[in-house]
Amino acid sequence: MTGAAGAALASLVFPGTARSAKHFGTLAESELLIGFAHTSPVNDGGWTQKHDEAIRHLHALYPAIRTLYVESVPYSADATRIFRQFVAEGAQMIIATSNYGDFISDVAEQAPDTIFLECDGHRVSDNLGWYYMTHWYASYVIGIAAARLSRSGRLGYVASFPTPSVLASANATLLGARSVNPSATLRAIPINSWFDPQAAASAGAALIDSGCDFLAGIMDDPGYLRVAQQRGVWAAMWNTDMRQFGPDAYVSSVVLDFAPFYAQTVRRRLAGSWRAEGRFLKLGEGVDRDRWGARVPPAVAREADDVRRRILAGWSPFTGPIRDSRGIVRVAEGHTMSDADIYAWDWQVQGVSGLV
C-alpha cells in the first residue's frame, strides 16, 4: 500500500489483533445517553437512514435509553464542537456514523470516561473504537450481474470521494464483472459529496453519454437510478432497496443493517463489558446484496448467487494476480488480500479509471 491509505493502515487495529483493556462500569438503561453524529440527513434514503433505522431498533429493545443526534455534521472544526457538546450533555457513548478522523479522536482523548465509536474509522484507543462493513464482497457479486446485463461491457460508477472505501467498492465491482467478461471496464466520476442527488444524476447522465450501459455507485440517494430508468440502462445502488425510484432499471443494492451491531454494543455497554476494538461487519451479518430487481433474469441471479454462497463458505475472490490501472501486478499470484488490505485500498485495478 502507498499514499495516505497505506500510512493509515500502519496505525489500524483490526479484529483479533488488539483490544483496549480499559473497563467501563455497568449502567442502568435509564442512565445511558448516546449521541449520534450523522454525515447526511436521516431521511436521505440511504446511509444515514440505515443508521437511523438501527437507532429506532435500539429504542424498541431498550425503551429506557436516551439518544440524540445531529444531521449533516461537516468535516470541519464544527464536528469537534458537536462531539464536545455531546460530552457536555452527558453522553456516555458517542457514535460517529462516518469517518471524522482527528475531529473525533481529539475529543476522545479529552473525555476518557466517554466511549466513542467511529464508522469507517482507523484508530483504537482506551475509549475509541471503529466499525465498518466488508461491502466489497457484495459489490463483487453485483459486478457479476453487471457483466451479464451490460451489452457493451462498459460500466459507469458514480463516486463520492476517491477514498479507500470507494476504491474498494469500484474495484470489487469490476473484478466481479471481469470474472465473466475479462474485457469489461469501469469509468468513475467523483462528485465530492455523499449526498447530492442533482450531482449524482448529472454524473450518471454523463457516464451514459460516454457509452456506459450499467451504472453503479456509492451514493446516499437514488439520483442516478432515476436517470438509468429514464435512459433505459441498468443500475445497482447502495445502502437500501431503492427500486421504487427506477423499477425497470434496478438490479440490486449493497444493503446495510447496523441494528444487530448497535444492539450488541449497547448490551455490552450496559453490562460493563464493552472494550474498544476495530470491528468488521461481514457479508450476511450487516451487509449483503439486496433482492434482485424484477427484470434481472433468473439465470443471472443464480450465477451471481452461486459466487455469494462460495464467499459465505470462506472463498475470497480477491486473490492474485491483480494488476493496477498501469498494468503493474500489485497482488501476487496465489496471494489473497485480507479485509485489512481491502479496507486500505488506494489504487485502481486494471480497467478502472477516474478515481486516482
From TrEMBL:
A matching Pfam family: Bmp
Keywords from the UniProt entry: Signal
CDD domains assigned to the protein according to its UniProt record, in alphabetical order: PBP1_BMP-like (cd19963)
Domain of life: Bacteria
Keyword Signal carried by entry: yes
Any Gene Ontology CC annotation: plasma membrane
Transmembrane segments: none
Residue stretches making up the ABC transporter substrate-binding protein PnrA-like domain: 34-286
Name listed for the protein in its UniProt record: BMP family ABC transporter substrate-binding protein
Organism of provenance: Swaminathania salitolerans
Lineage of the organism: Bacteria, Pseudomonadati, Pseudomonadota, Alphaproteobacteria, Acetobacterales
